[in-house]
Amino acid sequence: LFNVERLMKPVDISKYTYIAIALVALVVMLYPRSRRIPFWVLVGVPSGFLVVAQVLMREPVFGASLPVTITEICSVVLTGLFARELNRYFAEFEEVVSKIVLNYAGTPPPLFAEEQGVMYQELKRARLYKRPLSVLVMKPHPNSLQQQLPQILQTYRDGLVNHIAIAGITRLLDRELFETDVIAHYRDSLVVMLPELDATHAEKVVSRIQQVVKEKMSLDLDIGVAGYPADANTFESLLNTARQRAEATPAATEEASSPAPAVQPT
Fold first, then answer.
1. C-alpha 204, offset from chain centre
2. Helices 235-247 and 112-129: crossing angle, nearest 10°?
3. In which element (H, E) is residue 228 found?
4. Do the Cβ atoms of 191 and 184 come closer than 8 Å?
5. How far apart are CA 60 and CA 70, in angstroms?
6. DSSP structural state of residue 156
7. HSE value, Cβ hemisphere, 13 Å, CA-based, for 205
């Protein structure tokens, strides 16, 4: 569009055209569900906005300016087509990556939202029968992830490597823990609930998990433990306490003072 203005000085591309183009590109690229929106709606609304805005601002739209108006609308449509194709390629790439993760590390853990109800029930049961319970929050230590990059997939970013590591850790936890223990994926961490174990006995489980993960995957785990009722009485408090203690572990503290980049959640 800038080149059109340079070649044809009388042509004045409206500023609203750039707004409409940016709007279409942002919606298509940043809103995954935009693939469900009919294409004519996706480009028709910004194009309508473009024409209405020009009319309200008393800018020429028809007559001698009609070719320019058509050019502006076509630019919006072409932007929508290009952005949607790019979005489709990204979606296909994401699907391929997901398959690679599953083939590499096995079934990923259930999401935290899916297991949160079970954890609440376990906490209620512990309260009712006055039994101990512990909550662990764990995630791969960033330094270990950096060491694993050449062995897993060098081209993937830290977030993807974190997901691969989480899936692998879950596979090991399924072997090491009891069926009554609850495992869930929460953000960039794993949340594990250990019914019938207080924080003191849970520390023994923590040591065993760290040792197994270190031997099998060469990963260091930052694990925080919070026990009911010694540390907190509500599930949110147990979760927050365990997360804070995970971030305050010696390995995590060392990472905080290290120039190595931290892993960001996905």
1. 31
2. 110
3. strand 221-228
4. yes
5. 12
6. S
7. 28
φ/ψ (deg, to 5) at 152: -95, -85
pLDDT in tens, the chain (266 residues): 455 555 444 555 666 677 777 777 777 777 666 666 676 676 677 777 777 777 776 766 676 666 777 777 777 778 777 877 787 777 777 776 666 665 555 566 778 888 899 999 999 999 999 999 988 888 888 887 777 666 655 545 566 677 778 888 998 998 889 888 999 988 778 999 999 998 889 999 999 999 999 999 889 999 999 999 999 889 999 999 999 999 886 554 454 444 443 433 33
116/111 Cα distance (integer angstroms): 9
- Domain limits, the chain: 2-104, 107-256
Nearest one of 205, 197, 239 to 221, comparing CA atoms = 205
> Which residue matches tokens 């931290």?
262
For 200, the token pair is: 């003191």
User: Which pTM value belongs to this model?
Assistant: 0.48
CB burial string 172-181: b at 16+ within 10 A, e below: bbeeebeeeb
CATH of domain 107-256: 3.30.70.270
DSSP 177: S
Place of tokens 């040792």: 211
